[in-house]
Amino acid sequence: MFGKGLRGALWAAVVLGAFFGVFSTQARADEPGVTPDSITIGAFGPITGPAAYIGLAGRDGANLAIKEINAAGGINGRKLSMIFEDDGHSPTKALAAVKKLIDQDHVFMIFCVAGSNGTLGTIDFVRENGRVMFVSFASAPGVTWPFARNLFRGGTTEVPRYGELYAEYLHDYLKATKIAILNGREEYPKNEGDALTAQLKNWYQAAPVKRAEFNIGDKDFTPQLLEIQGADPQVIAIFGNPAEAAIAMRQAKELGMNQRFFLGTTMVDQSLLNVAKQAAEGASGFALLPLLPSSSNPEMKSWVAKWKQEYPNLPAGRPNVFDVLSYSDMYAVADALKRAGKDITTDRLIDALEATHDYRISAIASPLTFTKKHHIGNLRLQAMQVKNGEWEPVAFEGKRESDILKRYQ
Amino acid sequence: MTWRIILQLALSGLSIGSIYALVGLALVLPFKASGIVNFAQGEIVTFGAYLALILSGLGLPYLAVVPLVLVGAAMFGMATERLLIRPIANQPEFTLVIVTFAIGFVIKAAIRLHWQDNTFSIDAPFVGPPLVLGALRLNPAYLVFILSTVVVVAALFLFFGYSKFGKAMRATALDPIAAKLMGIRIGSVFSAAWALSTMLGAFVGLLLAPVIGINPEIGHLILKGLVAAVIGGFSSLGGAVVGGLLLGLLETYAGAFFGATFKNLVPFGVLILLLLLRPQGLAGASSVRRV
Amino acid sequence: MRARVLLILAGLALLAALPLVATSYYLYLVELAMINVIVAVGLNLLSGNCGQISLCNASFMGIGAYCTALCTTHFGLPTLIALPASVVVSALLGAALGYPARRLSGLYLALTTLGFLELVGIVIEEFPDYTGGIRGLKVAKPDIFGLILQSNAALYFFVFVLTIAAVVVGANVQRSRYGRAFDAVRQSPFAAQALGIPVARVKVIAFSLNAAFAGFAGGLLASVVGFIDPPEFGILTSIQHITFIVVGGLGSITGSIVGAVALTALPEALRGVQEYAELIYGLILLGTLLFLPKGLVGLVARLEMLRPAKPLTEPPAKPPAKEPAYGAS
Question: What residues of C are in contact with residue B113 (Cβ under 8 Å)?
Fold first, then answer.
């Protein structure tokens, strides 16, 4: 009925229409992501793959905060909403997520709950783009240095600071001069091990008596432990995952090693105690937050009860530290959004964030402070020790002035 | 290096090697029967561990959980073979490799969705304080690993050597067409091989669960199982066991003498050297596979 | 035939016009798809045509990526030198793997490539001063004759042109006598050897070519994303590459292109299901492998078979109208 020419032309029209329809951008508002009654935030982090416990907690903690904020009236009358994208812990996918959020979904700002590598994949794009990105978990220094007006880091402090606090705690508080380090060959544990080694050298002209490494997924640490035993340390610092640390500590005890253990931040967690049981008694380490979700502190208990009411079907192990961190940081962001006023723009948000001083939603969070010179919100970690099968806070505060801020003068 | 250290290392090498040996066995079984390597074997181990977790959570003691998990795994293996593997058994190798990987991927994704990344723990009668033998300390769990491997190998030896079905499986492995002509139902043989293999994998999960904790990533040790199987030439069950034990010892001593990097290199260095120089392994018969 | 060529040209024209209408997100996705097309075309030569299984394709991509990154960021070389250098290095390493492995096949070859993959990963992590180790490595934006490719459109055209070039090269190799030698080796190495084809040498060439394509794609990936880390080039990525050619259709260039595009788009399309994306991706993959053994290209071929066939005999032609005979009485 229709000639070949006409059919071809119809197909061409359909294809072209689809092409332009699918790929076209929508008209932009004056300030993207802001309408008279809503502000849209974009967020990304790993919710699939081995790092999913970070992104899922980041998303759920933030969503809980947003729900409460909206119930209390929102941000100057506007409702807050969040679009979350998976980054699969891959820089390639993280960049796709951020490009989608900024170019496609036109969000007002980005709330980043990704790991360090995912975050670093997006840094250049966000720097150029100018949208504010508030980084909650990533501890890589590249987030805040070189300085960019639109990049902020919240509750997590950066890796060199870990080294400073660890070194001071081990050397000045535990009075340990012979320290052995056992770390996993993965980004975060390696960072912790390197930072500690570097800071021992910088501040105390000391070096670990032994440094051994293990591979993620290792089930047996006998060779490394025997090597460490030969160096006769006073403290054994382990950086890795709770599962591995638990096995290592148990094996050390079996080998008759009675040194104190010092653990990295990922292991200052209930899950370590579940697997290591008795072997973890007396171990100490630093937590990212003043209180762990398993703490018996009344403010934390009521927060966990609130969380469990919102997410009743999640498995053991949630809420974890990242739930709390993300929740607190979202409140810090909301607080700045409010102070930026009804006539909100990116510049006003940046000014409001830079005016943040010792803000925290409650005792479950670390106080955050930003200045015009640096955007590192928190330089504090909480020292903890395992007493009677529970992580208890230790009254230790880093007294030495941090070297990190020196380059921001 | 004192004798004490060398013996201590030998014990831990043998016990971790037993685990590798069991995984290696689980890989060689379906390969011998149907020529397919099950790259999902690591996730079968994880599956076994989580199945144990579920049953433990229902209040069952460990010794009751063991046979239930083995039966469950066997059924899972048979179902997988029938529904997913047999329809595509004639496809090129790539398809089979990807399909088994995809099965493992789906299992891990499903586990991760439900239990997320928490490390769970279950109790077992063999977890306890270390046994003291002179200057040596042995984790009782390690003893159980070694003994279990001995028992499994003995059981398989009896099965393949003296039972009718075991002999049927050997015949099918040698020459499927002749076996068919002899009246052996090779479909059942394939199913049984897969069921045995998944049972072995789940058994490893059962052993490891109380000792190292249960999380979605424990399947990573399939790589070590592959190396163990290769040392045995991938065609010999006994070879896989020897391979696993050797690998465990090599790794442990290499790590002790040369550090963690070397420990990491050992499995893959051994793998490549063997494959290039002596692909039939240390024990296996020389077999030129469809070059 | 002409219609097909016109269709391809029209498609390319649409792709070329994309920067006019698309957001940087879509441009980025298309860039990633194009990079995966290069990977798939290269892997298809080795695995689809030559029949050699390789689980380490991602390693060659990683070698190319790290090589480009080091050349541009560490040594400050321009991209037009860094990329060819990466291709050469990858090709050499491909030959270095292919040569000792030339007598292996099937399972043993697969395991050797697996071992190679792990070794490359270890090497990358052992030299963090050069490769950034597990912390990853930042890569400078491509630098062509002093011009830094800052704008989205410039980077897009760069990748677009290079992808077309790679596909053309791949298609030509497939049609050349090397391509025919590959096919011969896949179908029967014994017969091929008997016919005088140097099977071992052909295999090494196939490995080398595959590595060159993968390394090239890796260099482009490093330039497009700007940040690389070792997990990007691990076993999961290698398996993903194999899925491109298996799902698309083993052995055909069209299949490689279709598979790469479809399986790059699929994870992005699954963003909506959030954390269920992995499970659904795995199930879709399993379903495709089970029900479409010849891949998507095979599906199209089967659908074409369902079209009513042309009759074998022509209907009798109408006799021409009787012309009046000249000079008839």
Answer: 275-276, 279
